[in-house]
Design goal:
alpha/beta; QueA-like; six-stranded antiparallel barrel
Length: 355
């Protein structure tokens, strides 16, 4: 398949710049795969599609305030750093802007959110093939403990605001976030409230979690002309024993519902390595799911609306028609309906349930 086949036109006004007034008040577009039918609902209507003994799986990774600002201590030039992955305490890979001025040996004074200098320095020690910089921090025992005071919420590039608002620290975080490590939110989970999760449990649905630390590659469009030529970004995951027990013990007729593409990628990655079963443990995945793909674990997918030409749109297309290529048409037709009815797109936008 060609990447251009996953393009679509989206009016700028439908890109959600702010969250909904209440998390669970988003709209919900429901796609029934076999019949090809669409239904326009509210997110709270998700309860109508859940049954006792279904297993709802969410990603509990927590977004860290990973965007730092600083000055070159020699020239005074400004830098912006997005922390990507921790190698060890005070040793991180990061995206640095402007990259051309961030040569190995450059030392950067980190400034706080008010523009005041801190006592923390970051030294550029090397550059990798992707253009990311390895930073070594000094002036603190662990930069992670300083991020709440110094860092900014790393909102995605399509949220076109001068700077994050204080409320983004809560809104761009799921209510069940636990494990620090993401630089982008697992956005399908943003719609849940503690009260709504309790209602779901009250229906006899089993709720469990995996962890996948979301990297910036989740926003990157596929640049290769052919889909199969795209090199997928790598992300860290972890699956616990309770989640393993619940999914492997799912009853006949019950569904495994993945909340978000990140959750689905964890489950399918682990299933690929274990002959269709889930096994507890941690690892890294570069799984790239696009049509045609035969899913091994997940029966339903709750997700948001995704960027044109993105790997996430390709995954949703694969899920819309497992083992076939016609899912692309189903998803793009559903997106056109969503656009016509003014659904809100991307991270702070509305939701879609694929059954």
């Amino acid at each position: 398949m060609r990447t251009a086949e996953f393009d679509f036109a989206l009016p700028d006004g439908l890109i959600a710049q702010f969250p909904a007034p209440a998390r669970d008040q988003a709209r919900l577009l429901v796609l029934e795969r076999v019949a090809g039918k669409l239904a326009h609902r509210r997110f709270v209507d998700l309860l109508d599609y859940l049954r006792p003994d279904d297993v709802l799986v969410l990603n509990d990774s927590r977004v860290i305030p990973a965007r730092l600002r600083g000055r070159n201590i020699r020239t005074g030039g400004k830098f912006e750093a997005l922390l990507l992955e921790e190698n060890a305490a005070n040793d991180w890979w990061a995206m640095l802007k402007p990259g051309k001025r961030a040569r190995p040996g450059t030392k950067i004074e980190i400034i706080d959110r008010s523009g005041r200098p801190s006592s923390i320095l970051a030294a550029v020690v090397e550059t990798n093939a992707e253009g990311h910089r390895r930073l070594r921090f000094s002036g603190t025992e662990n930069i992670l403990t300083e991020l709440e005071a110094l860092g900014e919420v790393p909102l995605p590039p399509y949220i076109n605001r001068p700077s994050p608002r204080p409320e983004d620290r809560d809104c761009y975080q799921t209510v069940f976030a636990r494990a620090d490590g993401s630089v982008a939110a697992p956005t399908a989970g943003l719609h849940f409230t503690p009260e709504f999760l309790e209602k779901i449990r009250g229906r006899g649905v089993k709720v469990c979690f995996v962890t996948l630390h979301v990297g910036p590659g989740t926003f990157a469009p596929v640049k290769a002309a052919g889909v199969a030529d795209h090199i997928m970004h790598e992300e860290r995951y972890e699956v616990g024993a309770e989640t393993t027990r619940l999914i492997n013990g799912v009853k006949t007729g019950s569904k495994v519902i993945a909340v978000g593409t990140t959750t689905l990628r964890v489950l399918e990655s682990v299933a690929l390595e274990n002959e269709g079963r889930i096994k507890a443990g941690a690892g890294r995945t570069r799984i790239f799911i696009y049509p045609p793909y035969q899913f091994k674990i997940v029966d339903a997918l709750l997700t948001n609306f995704h960027l044109p030409r993105s790997t996430l749109l390709m995954l949703a297309s694969a899920f819309a028609a497992p083992g076939e290529t016609r899912g692309r048409e189903l998803i793009l037709e559903a997106y056109q309906e969503a656009i016509a009815r003014h659904y809100r797109f991307f991270s702070y936008g509305d939701a879609m349930l694929i059954l």
